[in-house]
Write a structure and sequence with these properties.
By secondary structure, this protein is α+β, with helices and mostly antiparallel strands. It is built from three helices and five strands. It has two domains: about 15-85, Helix Hairpins (Orthogonal Bundle); about 90-165, Chitinase A, domain 3 (Roll), CATH 3.10.50.30. Residues about 10 have low confidence and may be disordered.
């Protein structure tokens, strides 16, 4: 019980990577909602006041932008819903999963590479980020340190050994 006499329910643990992505998407959605509800209606009103709508390029451009903004808001809503449904308890603590940073050693080329597994529909990828649905992502998922992975690519087949793993649970 809390001091106020109500039951205390601890907040579920979240991952900083997911929180940062949610914040970024929410900020974009907020900007788009403002554009949809404030900016575009005034642009459309201004274009209507110009007269003949059949040959009014400003009107057509504003309507097209309105459709694009509505579509993007729909996409953002879906992505935010997916992110809200991510259950950290379902992500392994000792094997590669969402948010894991994986260091692999290429057994043929004798080089070390680092990959960070991110959500499949992420828009921006930093160096070394791979999606869970990419060939490298699929080959690494559910593997642990010491496991050897065969990565089949169109140009060649690579053999990798996982030498280090930091899961989403261990990230700061």
């Amino acid at each position: 019980m809390s001091q106020a006499g109500r039951p205390f329910f601890p907040r579920p643990r979240t991952a900083p990577m997911l929180d940062a992505l949610k914040a970024k998407l929410q900020a974009e959605a907020e900007k788009l909602r403002y554009e949809l509800n404030v900016t575009l209606p005034s642009e459309i009103r201004r274009a209507v006041e110009m007269g003949d709508l059949r040959e009014n390029s400003e009107y057509k451009a504003a309507l097209e932008r309105q459709r694009l903004v509505q579509a993007r808001l729909g996409q953002l809503g879906e992505r935010l819903a997916k992110l809200s449904n991510v259950d950290l308890k379902q992500i392994p603590t000792d094997r590669v999963g969402l948010g894991s940073r994986v260091v692999v050693f290429d057994l043929q080329m004798e080089v070390t590479e680092t990959y960070h597994l991110v959500i499949g529909d992420a828009d921006e990828f930093a160096e070394g980020h791979v999606t869970m649905s990419s060939p490298i992502g699929r080959s690494l998922v559910d593997k642990g340190v010491g496991d050897e992975v065969v990565l089949r690519l169109p140009a060649r087949t690579r053999k990798l050994r996982i030498v280090e793993l930091v899961t989403i649970h261990e990230m700061p």
